[in-house]
Each structure stands twice: as C-alpha cells, then as structure tokens.
Design goal:
Elements: H1 2-13, E1 20-35, E2 44-59, E3 65-72, E4 77-87, E5 91-100, E6 103-115, E7 118-128, E8 137-147, E9 150-156, H2 159-164, E10 168-177, H3 178-182, E11 187-199, E12 205-216, E13 219-226, E14 230-237, E15 244-252, E16 261-270, E17 273-282, E18 287-297
Antiparallel strand pairs: 1-2, 1-18, 2-3, 3-4, 4-5, 5-6, 6-7, 7-8, 8-9, 9-10, 10-11, 11-12, 12-13, 13-14, 14-15, 15-16, 16-17, 17-18
Signal peptide: 1-19
Keywords: Signal
Length: 298
C-alpha cells in the first residue's frame, strides 16, 4: 500500500509535465460460500476475498514519450516507459522498457497501417535469458494482422533457446468477423480458432480451441470446444434490465453428465457498486458454490 501511495503522489505532483494523465482502477470484494460433500474439517467453507488494482498512464505534450504502471492489491506492480522514435500515418515505431507480462523486457513495436482496411503490428520482445548464462538474452516475436473482417495472430516464443535445439514453439490464432463480412448491422458473429504448436515433436499440435461469439439485440453468448474435449456454452441477456442474467455450462464429451459444470449469475448496479450474484454446481465433486461480488471502478 505504501508503494501505491508513493506512486500516486509522484504522479499527482508531476501532472503539469504531461499532456494527459489517466487514473483508473477497481476494487472487488467477493463473499463465497462453498459446499463440498465429505470435505474435512467442514463441508461448508466461507471466504471473503478482496482484489483490485490501480493503473496510471501518461504521455508528454508531444505524445512521443510516456509511461504506464499498474499496482495490484497483492502489491505486485508492472510498469514501463515508452518512446515513439518514428510516427507517420502509415508507420509507427514504439519502444517499451520495463516489466511487461510479469517479466522485465525491452519491446520494439512496429505498427504498419497503409489503409483503414489493413493494419499489421509486429512486436519483438527482448528479455534476460533464464536458461543458459552463456546466452545474454531471450527473444519472443509476435505479429497481428488485421484485414477487413479477418484477424491473424502468431507468436514465436523463446527463439534463442529453441533455435539451438532446432525447435519451434508457436501460438497462432485466426478470427473471422462474419457479421462484418456479410454486412449484418447491430449484431455480432465471430468465429475463432487458436492453436499451440511445438515442432518437431511427435505430436506437434499441443493445444487447440475453436468457437464462436454471437450477439443480437438483448442477447449475447459464445460456444467453444478445445483439445481437452471440453464443450462450453455461455448465454447472457439484458431482457430483465436493469438486471443482467446469464449462465454457462461446460461438459467433457466422453462423460457429459459426470463432468458437467453449471453456473448462473445475475448482475446489477447499486449506486457506485456493480454487483454479481453467482450460483455454481460441479457434478464431478457434487459441490456447489454461492458467491456475491461487489465491485467499484474509477
């Protein structure tokens, strides 16, 4: 908490040096009651769990330099400074340095946008090598290509280590915005597929998932299926506004009844609080949960 106050104080004192300073954050408190048959010392367990974070970001008057920082409830912090050495309508180059995704690294981000229908973002992440002291650094490379109704993402991880072993650790994904392709207004219909590949292993396809997101009027939902044979369906509606209700079901195809996980929830706002009441059931453990989460965001 002292770190949080120090960062906020420094940011407040420095507002005059920036064109814009943005503060945001949230605080969540969850009361959860869990019933697990046969559990010891008690079948009933009550937990009260707070969580949250505070984020601060700012840019200079020329929007060429800036920083971003986030402090979580548990005291863990992430933050980085950035600099844009080159900016044009078609190409932007940005350099980031700091703690990103949980590790200290330096990033080079190249954003190419020759038209409104085409955008390509290449990110090269350089960080200390934790495997062999002989190698000073490790390298991840990711790319995101957005073309009209199609988005393609690829990430090659630990390039230095895998190059020595003649291996590839690759994550890839594709998203098709069918609503945009078909010209369907005021609706969502997206098909997605993600793959994790490690070659030249005997079974290079390590993970995969396929699914779709949909929404129209007061309804939205999703369906997905993955390499663990898990089928998940979700549905949410604002039909009873100001209360939003929804639910989900997850099953394994080889044992739909015995593996079923059910969840239902209701969300509403009271003053500055956002509230979520959830009910859950797990067929494998025959356990049930009831939880109430109160959240405030700023």
């Amino acid at each position: 908490m002292k770190k949080l106050l120090a960062v906020v104080l420094v940011a407040l004192l420095s507002v005059g040096a920036f064109a814009a300073v943005n503060f945001s954050g949230s605080l969540d408190v969850t009361n959860k009651l869990t019933y697990t048959p046969g559990a010891t010392p008690s079948e009933l367990k009550w937990e009260v769990t707070p969580s949250g974070s505070v984020s601060i970001s700012a840019s200079g008057s020329d929007e060429i330099t800036g920083f971003s920082a986030t402090i979580n409830w548990d005291g863990k912090a992430e933050g980085y400074v950035w600099w844009k050495p080159y900016v044009s309508e078609a190409l932007t180059i940005q350099l980031n340095a700091g703690t990103i995704d949980g590790k200290g690294q330096v990033q080079s981000v190249f954003t190419l946008k020759p038209s409104d229908d085409l955008k390509d973002t290449l990110t090269v992440s350089l960080y200390p090598n934790a495997y062999k002291p002989a190698y000073l650094f490790e390298l991840d490379v990711s790319n995101k290509l957005e073309f009209m109704f199609l988005t393609l993402t690829t990430t090659v991880k630990e390039v230095v280590k895998n190059a020595e072993a003649a291996k590839v650790d690759l994550a890839a994904g594709v998203t098709l915005d069918a609503a945009k392709l078909l010209g369907i207004a005021d609706a969502t219909l997206k098909f997605k597929a993600d793959f994790g590949i490690k070659a030249p292993d005997a079974q290079p396809l390590k993970s995969w998932s396929v699914g779709a997101d949909f929404g129209i009027d007061k309804y939205k939902g999703s369906v997905s299926f993955n390499h663990e044979n898990k089928l998940t369906a979700k549905l949410e509606t604002t039909l009873l506004a100001p209360v939003t209700i929804g639910g989900s079901v997850t099953v394994k195809t080889e044992d739909p009844v015995g593996s079923m996980e059910l969840n239902a929830y209701a969300k509403w706002t009271l003053g500055v609080l956002s509230n979520t009441l959830s009910l859950g059931y797990n067929a494998a453990t025959k356990g049930a949960t009831v939880s109430l989460t109160n959240s405030v965001s700023f």
